[in-house]
Automatic annotation (TrEMBL):
This is N(6)-acetyl-beta-lysine transaminase. One of its GO terms (molecular function) is transaminase activity. InterPro entries: Aminotrans_3, Aminotrans_3_PPA_site, PyrdxlP-dep_Trfase, PyrdxlP-dep_Trfase_major, PyrdxlP-dep_Trfase_small. Belongs to the class-III pyridoxal-phosphate-dependent aminotransferase family. Signal peptide: none annotated.
Length: 433
């Protein structure tokens, strides 16, 4: 029984019930504006989504054009030119053979798991056991969350899909050989044949842009090939230029068998995500049942795929992948300068391209993980800057991931606002001692 009185609930259910947040009114480029007229620099592209910024005129025109034609058709009944165009552009950009469209990153991860199981079944060797890594986050649906070592996993305790863990591959104190030795032991001791190994090339939500230990991915690819295991990349946050490469796996010149894409594919203009399939998997299914045994009502709808295709065209025509690499180097240098300016606050800077992360020193007052970065988030909000705190429960860290279209001046303004917020946090922490 709840003993305390509860005020009337708002009909809007938020992540933090009863949270008082700024009322967003409009957005343009890297800027957000609330109903009071205050501006906020979008230092994390929302949830690392708005790759080409807000209210891009080409995308807005494409939305209007496509909405006047057709917004929805079930892909079991019709195929549209928009689907063909996006699939073609996406596979040409990434080097994969097929693209299966869904609605969100979590669904894209679920799709890769289902496609992996279907592939093994259709080749006559059914497998349904998957392995993922400690400190990972793959989404909020049952399968994706089951394979996530993240604080949110507690909500499915008791019904999560059973599987084994590999050690976190983002710990710079571990060597690739040590990690691969542990992976080999898990594979060889597994009581069930493993269908796939799921990984993030750069850890996003849980560790704030920690790249894989160099050498690990190439070794994992060899292990998977030797044991007939599919290598599945979760590039929901990292794909399509965010890290300065078309796919983050390209940093290590390793090609997975399946890839989950999301976030930047629709760039915040429409819900859309995709699973990419290599030729081997697509051939096995084509020559077998000839059907993908899955799907969602809105998957591949004409409006979403047309918008995503325009986003991809803007990305390619404006060379935003290279821009992410170049501007990411500058952003990293600025953040390293802040580390030097705030040595008692900043422990480490890490990341690739315009997906940079900052890890703060653990709170000395015993407040617990997340308390320091939450204070910084609020200080940034006061300064008109949005950052993305880690949510895994592992450390106090945050992402800095502005749109790929950000100008050098906008990146410098981001750093100025972050520096002021860090000064405020440092002073507040000193006052608490």
């Amino acid at each position: 029984m709840i003993s305390q009185e509860i005020e009337s609930h708002s009909p809007l259910v938020q992540n933090s019930l009863g949270a008082v947040l700024p009322h967003l009114q409009r957005a343009e480029g890297v800027w957000l504006y609330d109903t009071t007229g205050k501006d906020y620099l979008d230092g994390c592209s929302g949830a690392v989504v708005a790759n080409i910024g807000h209210s891009h005129p080409r995308v807005l025109a494409r939305i209007q054009e496509q909405a006047a034609r057709v917004t929805y058709a079930h892909r079991g009944a019709f195929v549209t030119q928009q689907q063909i165009d996006l699939a073609q552009r996406l596979t040409q950009m990434t080097g994969f053979t097929g693209a299966w469209f869904v609605n969100s990153g979590s669904e894209a991860v679920e799709a890769t798991l289902q496609l992996a199981m279907q592939y093994h079944r259709e080749r006559g060797e059914p497998r349904s056991h998957f392995v993922s890594h400690r400190t990972s986050y793959h989404g909020n649906t049952l399968g994706a969350l089951s394979h996530s070592d993240h604080a949110r996993r507690s909500v499915i305790q008791g019904i999560e899909v059973s599987h084994d863990w590999l050690p976190s591959p983002y710990d710079p104190n571990q060597t690739a050989d040590q990690l691969l030795h542990a992976a080999r032991q898990v594979i060889e001791s597994s009581r069930e044949p493993i269908a796939g190994i799921l990984f993030e090339p750069v850890s996003g939500a849980s560790l704030s842009a920690r790249p894989l230990v160099d050498g690990y991915l190439a070794g994992l690819r060899e292990l998977c090939d030797h044991h007939g295991i599919l290598l599945i990349a979760d590039e929901v946050m990292t794909g399509l230029g965010r890290t300065g490469k078309n796919l983050a796996c390209d940093h290590w010149s390793v090609k997975p068998d399946l890839v989950a894409l999301g976030k930047g594919l629709g760039a915040g203009y429409t819900p859309i995500a995709a699973a990419l399939l290599n030729e081997t998997i697509l051939d096995v299914i084509t020559l077998g049942s000839g059907r993908i045994l899955g799907g969602h009502t809105y998957g591949g709808n004409p409006l979403s795929v047309a918008v995503a295709d325009e986003v991809l065209q803007v990305t390619l025509e404006q060379d935003l992948v290279a821009a992410s690499a170049n501007k990411g180097t500058l952003l990293h240098q600025h953040l390293k300068r802040l580390q030097s300016a705030f040595p008692t606050l900043v422990e480490e800077v890490h990341g690739k391209g315009l997906l940079q992360g900052v890890t703060l020193h653990a709170a000395a007052d015993g407040e617990g993980i997340g308390s320091t970065v939450e204070q910084l988030r609020l200080a940034c909000l006061e300064e008109g800057l949005i950052i993305y705190p880690a949510t895994g429960g592992f450390n106090d860290s945050f992402l800095v991931a502005p749109p790929l279209t950000s100008t050098l001046e906008e990146i410098e303004e981001l750093i100025r606002r972050l520096e002021r917020a860090m000064s405020t946090l440092r002073d507040n922490l000193l006052a608490q001692e």
